[in-house]
UniProtKB/TrEMBL annotation, chain A:
One GO CC term on file: cytoplasm
Alphabetical keyword list: Ubl conjugation pathway
Keyword hit for rRNA-binding: no
Molecular function per GO: NEDD8 activating enzyme activity
Pathway(s) annotated for this protein in UniProt: Protein modification; protein neddylation
Phylogenetic classification of the source organism: Eukaryota, Fungi, Dikarya, Ascomycota, Pezizomycotina
Domain of life: Eukaryota
Similarity comment: family membership: Belongs to the ubiquitin-activating E1 family. ULA1 subfamily.
Protein name as catalogued: NEDD8-activating enzyme E1 regulatory subunit
Residue ranges annotated for the THIF-type NAD/FAD binding fold domain, each copy included: 17-114
Pfam families: ThiF (PF00899)
Entry function: Regulatory subunit of the dimeric UBA3-ULA1 E1 enzyme.
Alphabetical GO biological process terms: protein neddylation
TrEMBL record, chain B:
Keywords: ATP-binding, Ligase, Nucleotide-binding, Ubl conjugation pathway
Name assigned to this protein: NEDD8-activating enzyme E1 catalytic subunit
Protein transport among keywords: no
Coiled coil spans: none
Organism domain of life: Eukaryota
Gene Ontology, cellular component aspect: cytoplasm; nucleus
Organism listed in the record: Sphaerosporella brunnea
Catalytic activity: ATP + [NEDD8 protein] + [E1 NEDD8-activating enzyme]-L-cysteine = AMP + diphosphate + [E1 NEDD8-activating enzyme]-S-[NEDD8 protein]-yl-L-cysteine
One GO biological process term: protein neddylation
EC number: 6.2.1.64
Family statement drawn from the similarity comment of this UniProt entry: Belongs to the ubiquitin-activating E1 family. UBA3 subfamily.
Amino acid sequence: MASTAPSGMPSSKEKKYDRQLRLWGADGQNKLEASHIALFGASAAGCEILKNLILPGIGRFTIIDDKKVEESDLGVNFFLDDDSVGKSRAERTAALLGELNPDVEGDYIEDSFSNLVATKPELFQPGWTPFTHIIVVSPFNTDDVLKLSPEIPTFLVHSIGSTAMLRISASTRCVVDTHPDTLIDLRLLNPWEELSAMVAEKTKDLGIAEKDGGMSDHEHGHVPYVLLLLKFLEDWKAAHGGNPPSTYAEKNAFKDMIRNSMRMDVPGGSEENYEEAIAAVLKNIRAAEISSHTKAVLEDPRCINPTPECETFWIIAHAVREFMNRDDQGAGLLPLSGGFPDMKAESSTYVALQNIYRSRARRDATFVHENAKAVLRKLGRDPELITLDEVSLFTKHANFVRRINYRTIAAEYNFPPDDFHKKAVTSALQSYNAEWNPSLIYDYVALRAWQEYYSKIGQLPGEDDNYLDSDIREQMRITAVDYLSSIGYQSNIDHRLDQMLQEIIRAGGSELHVIASLIGGIVAQEIVKVITSQYVPVNNTVIFDGIKSRTSVFEF
Amino acid sequence: MTFAQGPRWKQLERVRNRKGAFTDDDYAPQDQAEFLDDCKILVIGAGGLGCEILKNLALSGFTNIHVIDMDTIDLSNLNRQFLFREADVGKPKAEVAARFVMKRVKGCTITPHYCAIQDKDTDFYMQFKLVICGLDSVEARRWINSTLVDMVDPNVMETLKPLVDGGTEGFKGQSRVILPTITSCYECSLDMLTPQTAVPICTLASIPRQPAHCIEWASILEWPRVFGDKKMDTDNPEHIQWLYEAALARAKEFNIMGVTYSMTQGVVKNIIPAIASTNAIIAASCCNEALKILTNMNPFLQNYMMYTGDEGVYTHTFEHQKKEGCPVCGTSAIDFEVSPDITLADFIDKLKEQPDIQIKKPTITTQRRKLYFQAPPELNELTRPNLDKKLSELADSGEEFAITDPGLPFNLRLNVIFTK
Ligand SMILES: [Zn+2]
C-alpha cells in the first residue's frame, strides 16, 4: 500500500480504508494486501467470509468448487444471480465477489477439494503453495482435511441450519500488538531517580499554606495525581517500616491520608487532582505483576534458546528475559510500556512528567535492543535485522504479548483420542449444566457425529426426505455415543445432545443465509486477526448457537 | 407478494417446514403463509449494517421491504458498505442499496425513502410488521424507540411492532430485541452507554495536555474566534486542514506530540472505527432474530447479545430488565429528589449530568406555570428570571415537572420531591 506521511492529507486509498486503518494501521493493511486466500467450497458461508475479506482489501483470492449453480443456490447465496444457473459455481462466485473491490485479484479453479488434495499435493505444501491462508467449508471429508499441512493457517467452517462452527489450525502465532484496553503502567512502587527527583521538586511545599509561603490554591490543585501518590507513598512508607499499603484496609487508610491533605476551602469544595489520586489507589498501588501470557512466552523453550532460524519475536522475547534478569537493566521488572494517562495538571508539568515515563520506556527499549543485537550476532545473523521500532512495539506491549500454540486437526481426530482431547471434552461435558453453564459442548459432539456421518456415507443427514428423521437420529446417536466412550466419558448424557442432533438433521445440510452470514463475519474477523498479527485470535474452536444467540470457545 | 416459494428457496423451506427440537408443539409453518405474504419490514439505515440487513432479509424470503436513510455515499463507506461502488459516491444510500438488492434477488421489492426518520408519521410506521435498526446515532434510535412505544394500543396486537436493534464499534457489537411496552426498551438501557465526558473548556483554553485537547481547542474555540458565524463543515477537507494546522501549532506551543490529520478528522467528526466483518455478525444476528420472530421457526433472543472479537470470541447473552420508571415505556412520572434551596439553573445543570436522561437545552413547565422556555425569544425573556429563583419559590414538593428537549424524543415527566 502506498502510504503517505501520517500527518498529511490522506490518499484516496487511505480515505477508502479510513475506518479500518484506525484499527489495524498501515502495517496491518500491508499484511492484508500481501495475503492470498483459498476458499474451498463456494457455499453461502464461504462467499460471506470472502466478502468480508475482499472489502477490507486482501491481496488475492481463489475459489475452488466443482459444482454447477442450481436454482436453490440463489435463495441462499448473494454472490450468484439468475444468469449463473447451470454455470460453474466457482467461476460465477469469483466474478460477482470480484466486483466488490477493484484492488483485489480473484481467481477460481473448477475442481473439488477431495480431488485437488489427492492429485495436486503441491498446492497444499508449505514452500510451494501459492495460498497464505486456506478456508474449507463443509461438507468436507475428514480424511481430506487431515491431509492439510499444519503449517498453513487453515479455517474449517460449518454452517448447518441454526448452528455454525469454526476450527482454526496454524503454526504457533506470536502476537505483539494485541490491542489491550490500556497500556498504562505507572510503576508507583518502583520509582526511579528522575521520577523521585520530580516528586521532591514539585511537592516540597505541599503541606504549607499559602500565607506561610506555600502553594497557591491554583498550584495546589494542579499537582499531577501521580506525583501526589508518589509523595504520599514516601510518607506512608516512612511511617510503616518501609512498606507500602498492601491490604484493602491499608489502602483505605492511605486514601484517608490523601483526603486529609486536600484543601476543602476551594471553589467546589474539593480538589480534582486529589480526587483523581484517591480514585487511582486501588488500581495502581500494587506490585508490578507479570501476566500469565507473558510468563508463558518468557518460559517457552524458543525464548530461552532462540535458534538461527527463529522468528524475531523469540529473539526480542529472549532479550526481554535478559533485561529482566540483569541487575543493571530491569532488575526483575519488565520494560516500561510508557503508557501514561491524562490528569489534571498544568501543561508544562504534565508534559515534563509524561516525558520522564517516555524516556524511561525508551531507555528500557534501548537495553532490550542491545541485548537483541548481541543475540543476533551470537546466532550468526545480521545484528541490524531487528530495528529499535520493532523492539519498542514489543516492550510497549511486554505484559500483553501472546503465544498461541494451535493443536493440529490430526490431533483432534486422532484415534484413539490423545489425553489432551479427552480431558478437554470430558471436563466440558462434566461442567455442562442446562441452567447455569449451558455451554455448547453437546453441539460439538453432535457436529462431530454429523461430520462422521457425511465422511462415511457421503450424504448429508436429513437431506433425503425418504429417510425418516428418527432413523437417522438413532444412527447418529450411536456414532456420538461411540465417540463419547472413546474419550472415556461414561456418565450421563444431557438431553441437549438429542436436541442438537434433531436440529442439525432438520437442516438436512441446508444453510440459512443469516447463519451463513453470521459465521462469515466471525471467520473473517479471525482471519483478519491472524493475517495482521494484531488482536487475539481464537484458540481453536468457536461454536455459534443461532437459537439462543450465544457462542462457546473450546480448545480441542 | 409471496414469501419464499419455489425451488429457489429449497434450503430455507427445508428448515422452516420441519419441526425442530426447540419449536413450539403447535408449530405449523403452512398456517403462516398469509401472514408472511403480507409481511412488510422496515429497515432504518442503509449504511454498514443496513446494506447487510437488506441482503439478509431478501435472502430470508421477505419480499416487501422498505428502507429509510438520509445519507449519501462517501468514499470511506466502501470498505464495508458492499452494495456501493466508487461510481455511486454522492448518491443516496437508500436508493442505490435498494436497486442493487432488487436486481440481485428476483422477486424482492425494496422501497427506498431518502429522508430523515422524523419526516415520517405514525401511519407510515404502522404499516410494518417489524422494524430493524442499523444506525450509528443515539438520537435517531431514541426517536424510533419512543415512537414505536407510543404507537402501542394494548387492545390491538397489530400495533405492537417488534424492534430489532444493532450497533458496532471496531471488533465489538451488540444486537437486541425490543417488544415495545413488553420488554426493556432502548431508553431503559441508556445508562449502559459509556458517558461522553466532555473536556472542561478551561483545559482546552489554558492547560491542554493531549493532542485531542489541541484539536478540540481549534474546533470549539479557535474556529468561531477566527471565522465568527461561518459554519464549520467537517466534510470539507479545507476546513479539516485548517483545524489540523491550528491544532498542530497549538500542540507545538505546549510541546504536545501526536496531532495528525487523521486524528483531527477522527476527533471533530467523532469517527467510530468500522469493519465489514463486525457489521456482518451484528446485521446477521438482527435478521436471524427477525426471521425467528416472524416465522416462529425457532425461539428468539431474550433479549440482548453483546459480541466481543478483540480477544478471542466472547458473547454475553442476557435479558436486560425493564427499568422501573423508564421515561418512555414506564407508565408513571419518575421521582426525582432534590434540595428545595437550589436554583432552577442548578436544577437544570443537575438534569444535564444524568446519564440516563441526556438533555442539553430543556424547556420546563408545571401544570401551574411556565418555569423556563428556550424559545421563542419572548417566552425565553419572560421565564429567564426564574433561573435564579429557588425551586421552593417555584413549585411544591411532589409537583410534576414536564421537560422537553431537542435531544429528547418524548416529554419527560418528573415528580420533583424536595429533600429535607
Ligand atoms: Zn423503557
